[in-house]
Amino acid sequence: MSALSLPAVLTMSEARATLALLEPALQSGTETVIDASALQALDTAAIAVLLQCERVAAAAGRKLKIEGMPPKLAELARLYGVEALLGVAPAA
Questions:
Q1: What is the percentage of the chain residues whose pLDDT exceeds 70?
Q2: Of 17, 69, 82, 90, which has the most beta carbons under 10 Å away?
Q3: pTM for this structure?
Q4: C-alpha angle 24/29/35, rounded to 5°?
Q5: What CATH code is carried by the domain that includes residue 62?
């Protein structure tokens, strides 16, 4: 299992560079955990990055788990209807 961390800022400006760092690790091992707890500033690009990570992992036959998801990120995932894909717990 490999463990990766998201940066403190993940907006459209950082999305491409963040993906470039994450994608190679998603293709090795059997499961990858992405720690999102450091995220402080984000926009919808963070959702796009995580969805691409999910696609890359699935294409490589790997499992992806996202931990430490900040409330704002979980809220965006629910808003866009992708909470199940990203492992976000249903809203209470």
A1: 95
A2: 69
A3: 0.90
A4: 70
A5: 3.30.750.24
